[in-house]
């Protein structure tokens, strides 16, 4: 797909189509959203929340899951809060998420089918990488969102900002609140 992308991109820049997207790196609506990488949410999620280019920092992971407290997702949230002026955090999972049906054993089988050796898998596991835990999804999106919300709220480096949990319908864009944080927004500026 790369060639198609580059060809399109040339036109895009030449025709100055970027003009309608001009903004800054600071989120106009002072929020950061952690959501899922699901393809149905690319445009639907911002549209359903009335977010335009420049309005929010959006961090994506498979399943909108934070997983580790000092991994890339948590770091992104921390940077959005401290360096980019996000004063409110939204964790937005969705129904029919691919991470709700993921089977670690099946994925490991696919590793081998795609040429990863059993040896490599054993080496990783012997080195303390628990692939089953690492690949595990969730049974219930509401519980998963709540877990991520709690993890962010209780993180030792997260200041006193509201952290809300929501679930979005990937067909209609309807948002349901899982956990509304009543804490007041205190501006960072
Ligand atoms: Zn998903």
TrEMBL record:
Cofactor(s), by name: Zn(2+)
Entries under Pfam families matching the protein: Pro_CA
Entry superkingdom: Bacteria
EC number: 4.2.1.1
Catalysis performed (reactions): hydrogencarbonate + H(+) = CO2 + H2O
Keywords: Metal-binding, Zinc
Chain positions recorded as Zn(2+) binding sites: 36, 38, 94, 97
Manner of cofactor binding, per the entry note: Binds 1 zinc ion per subunit.
Top-tier EC class: lyase
GO molecular function, one term: carbonate dehydratase activity
Gene3D superfamilies, A to Z: Carbonic anhydrase
Entries under InterPro entries matching the protein: Carbonic_anhydrase (IPR001765), Carbonic_anhydrase_sf (IPR036874)
Family: Belongs to the beta-class carbonic anhydrase family.
The protein's name in its UniProt record: carbonic anhydrase
Organism field: Priestia filamentosa
